[in-house]
Write a structure and sequence with these properties.
Blueprint (H helix, E strand, L loop, with lengths): L5 H23 L3 H11 L6 H12 L11 H19 L8 E2 L2 E2 L1 H5 L1 H21 L4 H15 L4 H10 L7 H26 L6 H24 L9 H5 L1 H20 L7 H6 L6
Antiparallel strand pairs: 1-2
Helix pairs in contact: 1-2, 2-6, 3-4, 3-9, 4-6, 4-9, 7-9, 8-9, 9-10, 10-12
The structure holds geranylgeranyl diphosphate.
Geranylgeranyl diphosphate (GRG) binds next to helix 4, helix 8, helix 9 and helix 10.
């Protein structure tokens, strides 16, 4: 299989991966509203960045393209967690959003109770998928540990707690960096580190650095895009704190650091993770 770059990898793998997500949930979840609400958000047009980064890292670590479906449960579990986090983030008691990806949010479509439960279902099912995956026990345990660490109260959930409780306080640069690291970067970096550990690639400090910088860059790009659209004017974001130009420079430096880090990675096909950085170009 000839893979040109990350974009090509994503394009070639996505239809099969999307089908896998729907088929697997449909086989497993028998309560009709549970299944409908979970599938509604899972299939509402997300870019699948996190599972594709996980699979791209496994591929770059030496897994053959045709063997990647063996890793779909673990990659899928990361997308389930991402989807749950967005459903809960949109709830009236959190960000109170009516639309996501141009469609009604889960609570607007199904009601708040079912939306909370759709999120609960996705979060729990994620760990069921990892536990049942065909990877060997040590790799499954590593995936559970990294994901629980980065997505739970030591990572993403903690970041969300800071976010919703510090809304009225202006955070300084260190506090904002910590918030973004936990809320957004930790799940993205988990995708990359789980990809490496699932493929038996020794986790180097360079790959961890790449993962952390990319995770933070992801949030800055999202904030800059929102600022361009005139959104989030009174929120704790880098464009609001240091201005758009300084945020663009910060983003540029994060991407440069990520590139330098991954270029030092040994026994690793660097092409996909280098080309992923195009995502941050304007
Ligand atoms: C509710 C526990 C809990 C956590 C929520 C992720 C999150 C924490 C909140 C979302 C807030 C937000 C929009 C952050 C910006 C970065 C980000 C996560 C953007 C959305 O990710 P994409 O661009 O989304 O990968 P798609 O729609 O492509 O799946």
């Amino acid at each position: 299989m000839d893979i040109k770059n990350f974009q090509d990898f994503h394009k070639q793998l996505l239809p099969q991966f999307d089908q896998f997500l729907t088929d697997k949930l449909t086989q497993e979840v028998k309560q009709p509203l549970m299944l409908e609400s979970m599938l509604y958000s899972l299939n509402s047009g997300g870019k699948r960045v996190r599972p594709m980064l996980m699979l791209a890292t496994a591929y770059s670590s030496g897994v053959k393209f045709e063997d990647l479906p063996k890793y779909f449960d673990v990659a899928g579990s990361i997308e389930l967690i991402h989807t749950y986090s967005l459903i809960h983030d949109d709830l009236p008691e959190m960000d109170n959003d009516d639309y996501r990806r141009g469609k009604l949010t889960s609570h607007k479509k199904f009601g708040t109770g079912p939306a909370v439960l759709a999120g609960d279902g996705l979060l729990t099912q994620a760990f069921y998928w990892i536990s049942k995956s065909s990877l060997d026990t040590s790799k499954r345990m590593a995936a559970v540990r990294i994901l629980a660490h980065n997505a739970g109260p030591m990572g993403m959930v903690a970041g969300q707690m800071t976010d919703i409780t510090k809304e009225d306080k202006q955070l300084n640069i260190d506090e904002l960096t910590q918030l973004h690291k936990q809320k957004t970067a930790d799940l993205i970096s988990a995708a990359i580190t789980i990809g490496a550990s699932s493929a038996d690639h020794k986790l180097s400090k360079e790959l961890v650095e790449y993962a952390e910088k990319v995770g933070l860059a992801f949030q800055l790009k999202d904030d800059l895009d929102d600022a361009d659209d005139g959104e989030d004017v009174d929120k704790n974001t880098f464009p609001n704190l240091i201005g758009k130009q300084a945020t663009e420079e910060k983003l540029h430096n994060l991407v440069k650091d990520a590139l330098n880090a991954v270029l030092k990675e040994e026994k690793f096909d660097k092409n996909l993770l280098v080309s992923f950085l195009d995502y941050f170009k304007k």
